[in-house]
Amino acid sequence: MIKRFITKDNFLNESYFLFGARQTGKSTLLWELFPEAAFYDLLENNTFERLQRNPSLLRQNLEMLEPGTLVIIDEIQNLPELLNEVQWLMVRKGHRFILSGSSARKLRRSGVNLLGGRAIMQTFYPFVSHEIPDFDIVKAVNQGMLPRHYLASEKNYWDLLQAYVSVYLKEEIKAESLVRNLSSFNRFLEAAALTDGEMVNYNNIASDCGVDAKTAKEYFSILEETLIGYMVPAYTKTVKRKVRQSPKFYFFDVSIPNYLLGRRMMQPGSDSFGHAFEHLVIQELIAYLGYRRVQNALSYWHTYNGYEVDAVLGDAEVAIEIKATNEVQHRHLHGLKAFKEEHPDARLVVVSLDPNPRLMNGVEIMPATYFFRQLWDEKIFTA
């Protein structure tokens, strides 16, 4: 059994919203950590239908329990009306809640009670390298880090991924009535996959999927609010070089663009592996910062004359270039050197497939697995 980064200690003495995309392992984690909790699974038809007809049944059930009881409600976005009952039980009975779900969009946009700040927001991510013994980076680049996909055999993972994309990314979006034209949204997903890890140009993407730029921007908003993707902003503090300011978009797991673009069985040395490798490193950075509740600490840097740094941590504290090569050379350092001219105190790092860490002209060359260990040991960036 793989031990996840989040443990019981993360839930002590408080109530929480725990949000994460489907199949990241939220329900499994909560069952394992809190087998004694009162558990309501809103994907169970009987539970959902009873509470939908009469939300006050939750209060009636839980009033019978000892004050301070831990209560878990899974897929809370399916029945946001329960949150009024939850708040009453928190205030009057002192019960503690973990409210998990795969989308915060319904809750935030429907004007429901979000418990007045009484519950801490926590995002749950796919596997991270720190959780996996004998972590295999080539496997992670190809199969992604969703638990079922990473743990699947090479023979079976593609079928699991096909089911995940077709059912979750398309049917669930349709079921939530988030888009009126599902066919245009499907085309948008493919266009978003083509620009995964690239600067977002709403006009170009809108043209590719047959909608206007406003609709394309709303589609990206849907992906963000349903936790299917993230926007990484540009680092815009300038000294002399003019920088681009459009954000970059990344799906929450590298397996999603892999499937949408038909990328499978990729090997180091190919362009497709390089793109997916960069995504995996960014994905790991997002999870690291998210678990440590560090806000607005990840950006990228790109100048109009072509210098680029893939990731900037904090206020230019660490600049990271990501190269899927087994031997970083001087030509790979141009972007970092240009960034150093503007931000002389920055620590410069290249994440690569080099066999060993080394120092080259003041730039730290780190094999990806070594970089990940340093990251989770808080030796790369702390806030």
Share in β-strands = 15-25%
**Helical percentage:** 25-40%
Q: Count the E strands.
A: 13
Low-confidence stretches: none
Helix tally equals 15
Rg value: 22 Å
Order of strands, main sheet, comes to 8-9-10-11-13-12
Helical/strand content category: alpha/beta
Task: Sum up the overall morphology in one term.
Answer: globular
The run of helices and strands is EHEHHEHEHEHHHHHHEEHHEEEHEEEH
The largest β sheet comes out as:
6 strands, mixed
* Beginning-to-end CA distance, first to last residue: 31 Å
Mean pLDDT: 91
Description:
With 383 residues, the protein is of the alpha/beta class. The chain has 15 helices and 13 strands. The strands form three sheets. The protein has a six-stranded mixed β-sheet with strand order 8-9-10-11-13-12, with helices on both faces. A five-stranded parallel β-sheet has the order 2-3-4-1-5, sandwiched between helices. Helix 3 runs parallel beside helix 4. The two termini are 31 Å apart. The model has no long low-confidence stretch (mean pLDDT 91).
